[in-house]
Amino acid sequence: MASASAIGKLSREEFRRQKDLDAARKAGTAPAALDEEGRPINPHIPQYISQAPWYLDTGAPSLSHQRRPDYDSSANKLDEWYDRGAKAGPAAKKYRKGACENCGAMTHKKQDCLERPRKKGARYTNSNIQADEVIQQVASGYDAKRDRWNGYDPAEHKAIYEEYAAIEAARQKLREEEIDNQTTTDLAAVRKVAKAGKDADADFGSSDEEDADEDKYADAADAVGQKLDAKTRITVRNLRIREDTAKYLINLDPDSAYYDPKTRSMRDAPNKDIAPEEARFAGDNFFRYSGEAPDVQKLQLFAWQAAARGNDVHLNANPTQGQLLHHEFKQKKEELKDTSKISILAKYGGTQYLETAPKELLQGQTEDYVEYSRTGQVIKGRERAKAKSKYPEDVYVNNHTGVWGSWYDSSTGTWGYACCHSTIHISYCSGQAGIEAAQASTAQNLLSSTPANPPPTITTEESASREEQPSQRVEQNYSKKRIGEGDVKLDKDSLTQALSEEKKRKMGEEEDRPGKKRKGALESGSHDVTEEELEAYRMNRRMIDDPMANYVDSQV
48 phi and psi, to 5 degrees? Predict the structure, then answer.
């Protein structure tokens, strides 16, 4: 329909076609109209909503005039304002063309300059040139332009507050000195001196109206027939102090308890997170259900039910009769309940199930505080009973004197019995003999019990060859320096012999089958490695991890 307003007045045929199209769109047989953003327009929206006014009409179907305008992020916030007095860096050394002729700044002209008018400006003296100001572009919105407090710094009000506080402190000190100098004890004279220079003071009264009310009540106390008291004046004054906070001011949250201004009632508690007993005001319903208020409600309910059954009971007409009847009714109700209980127990039995032991004795667990000494004796409180397990306890089987898990073997990491050190569950106890057998079967005892190998027999030729070896070999084996480290001197003949032996050893390892022991495997354990043999091993070993092991330079 918005398009119709953009086109103008429609002919009879065009109006009929527009109506048919709207009916088809409402029926769902024709697609809905789309706005300028490609979003469909609900055909059931009335014309007075979908049709834009003449000053917002875009010439196409649209609902943009019904939507909230997008937030203008270019506009500044309300707390953003000009940084007054900010300089754009250090001042120039000499006058620049186009600058202010008075102060030499580039940001304004001579007629806008706020500096003192000089007899000879900076254009001619070329000295005392001022720095350029910071020119800010504050894009204020509709609200910011019309805010009369925009750009005001609240910190400026602190100086005014401090000034008034200092004046008030001096005035208070002056009044105290005048009161101390007074010799009379007349309250009116003291108030007159204290109120000098000030219309009202919170220490001696809030207003002239309260003073007049106080005098009125004091005069009433002095009337004929009244009992005079020295504290009557003060009592009257204290009764007039209005320090009770209003119900609707206890909690300012609008979602808190509802306050009815007509009846001045707030039924719910304003602060529900505070216990009703500790709260200053817990709601009007709290007073209705505390104290003897519930008893009055029960009495009223009893009176209504008794009157409905034909009894002449009315709480307001004769409250004493209603209360006595209610008390008699409660006694008969308790007697009837006890009688029915006794008859049921006499008929079906079960009295023994009603007499149960205390919960502490049944469960064996309490939360009593108990203090013990270093020796395990109870100092304060009584000893707490141990919690019982659902598994059977202190059950000894197969002649055992300890339970399973009472002993732990740290060498094997297994649990067993402490009486025989057996690590087999449900085994028969062997006593001290089992402990000795377990100690004898440890790996350390087995190694210590094995006989040492007999020393090998040495022939005369072998002893002579050993005596001929140089002492350097002995020093090398027993020195602190490790073999293959430091400056090593190698014998060429011994190295050649070691290389040939290393090749034979490798060939023998390749020929041996896997798992078959070599002939000299037992003799190799007592053989001392020489520097030449270690160098031969290093020269012939396969360095698989070395990426340059198989590198060949083709240019050489």
Answer: -70, -15
CA 311 to each of CA 297, 317, 322: distance values in angstroms, whole numbers, following the listed order:
19, 14, 11
Give CA–CA dist 392/400, Å, rounded: 15
Q: For the packed helices 187-194 and 157-181, what is the interaxial angle rounded to 10 degrees?
A: 150
> Do 343 and 411 belong to one domain?
no
Residue 267, in any domain of the structure: no
* Per-residue pLDDT tens over the stretch 2-43: 444 445 688 999 999 999 999 999 999 999 999 888 899 999
Contact 218, 233 (CB under 8 A): yes
CB 2 within 8 A of CB 57: yes
**Do the strands 407-409 and 378-380 form a parallel or antiparallel pair, or are they unpaired?**
unpaired
DSSP string of 330-345? HHHHHHHHHHHHHHHH
- Give the residue from 238, 254, 275 where a domain finishes: 238
pLDDT digits (tens, 9 = 90+) for 175-190: 898 888 875 555 556 5
Instruction: Count how many domains the chain has.
Output: 4
Tokens of 193: 């001196």
Per-residue pLDDT, averaged over 411-422, amounts to 88
Compute CA distances 167 → 172, 266, 378, whole Å: 9, 43, 69
214 occurs within a structural domain? yes
Q: What is the pLDDT of residue 461?
A: 57
Residue 546 lies inside a defined structural domain of this protein? no
Number of Cβ atoms within 10 Å of the Cβ of 122: 24
Owning domain of residue 53: 2-66
DSSP letter, residue 478: H
CA distance 223 to 216: 11
Per-residue b or e along 297-309, where b marks 16 or more CB atoms closer than 10 Å to that residue's CB: eebeebbeebeee
Spatial neighbors of 488 by CB under 8 A, at least 6 apart, are: 531, 535
Are 404 and 415 in contact, with CB atoms under 8 Å apart? yes
Q: What is the DSSP letter of 65?
A: G
Instruction: Say which range, 41-55, 101-115, 357-371, has the weakest mean pLDDT.
Output: 357-371
- Judging by beta carbons within 10 Å of its beta carbon (0-12, 13-18, 19+), is residue 281 exposed, middle or buried? buried
365 within domain boundaries: no
**Paired tokens of 175:** 């009044």
- Please answer whether residues 393 and 409 qualify as being in contact, where contact means their C-beta atoms are separated by less than 8 angstroms: no
Q: Domain end: 238, 269, 284, which one?
A: 238
Q: Which of 439, 402, 441 is nearest to 419 (CA)?
A: 402
**204-241: pLDDT as tens digits:** 444 455 555 555 555 555 455 555 455 454 454 445 45
Q: CA 417 to CA 405: how far, in whole Å?
A: 6
Residue 374 or 479, more confident: 374
Output the CA torsion 362→365→370→374 (10° steps).
110
Contacts of 240 (CB under 8 A, 6+ apart): 210, 213, 214, 217
- Are 182 and 190 in contact by the 8 Å Cβ rule? The answer is yes
